[in-house]
Specification:
About 10% of the residues lie in helices and about 30% in strands. The protein is mostly beta strands. The strands form four sheets. The protein has an eight-stranded antiparallel β-sheet, sandwiched between helices. Strands 1-2-3 form a three-stranded antiparallel β-sheet. Strands 9-10 form a two-stranded antiparallel ribbon.
Amino acid sequence: MLGPRAPGDSCAPDGRWHHLAYTKTANPTPQRTLYLDGEVVLLSRNGGAAIDADRTYANGSALVLGQDQDSFGGGFQASQAFRGSMTELRFWNVARTQLEIRDAMFMRLQPDAVSTCDAVREACRNTVGGFECDCAPGFLPPLELAHDGFSLHVPGPTLWPTGGGVGNVWRLSVRAENQVELQGWQGQYLTAPSGAPAAREGAVGVDAVWTYVTVRDNVIKLQSWEGTWLTAALQLSATEGDAQEWQVGPAA
């Protein structure tokens, strides 16, 4: 979903693309959950008249996107219309879990396509040839990202001598065919806020997702969600030529 920020709106659109998901379950407890970029932003349980999670919808019901229907299928007002863009609308016949939503939100799904498990494993092989990953969360084995004898290190991020300790160890979580999250040993995620990279705890979301470009076997470049590139000086550059080539290998 892409759109301008509404006056006084602290949850949503800021001019960038975001992933929005909504689930509802009736059993064992009626519950509605709203996710923004894979994170819970609204949770309602047992809300009486305010929650209809146990209601079923008959044929002929009306689903309206981007408008508020004041009457069945009508009563629309221009001032209440969504201003922006939507794409890749998906419907599921089950309430997806938070992990399932996060694992698939950056993937382009096709009918009868290979399973998420197969797609994750293929992404692992494409990233670092020969490595397999744990299917469910999509994690590769502990790895180091190094160049010229120094590895990406947390806290920081900083550069330390390759094999220099647990701070050099990263867990790469495959989000899509060429997108990963990098999580340090204390749970920090490498993020790309405006300015310089940072390692923050609990920073799962758009700014923790990196697109990798394979240069050759086990060598990649990392591009942030804003399109900037991670350099050898651990800065972000708009020019791909400034991007550092990182050797990806098993943690020592």
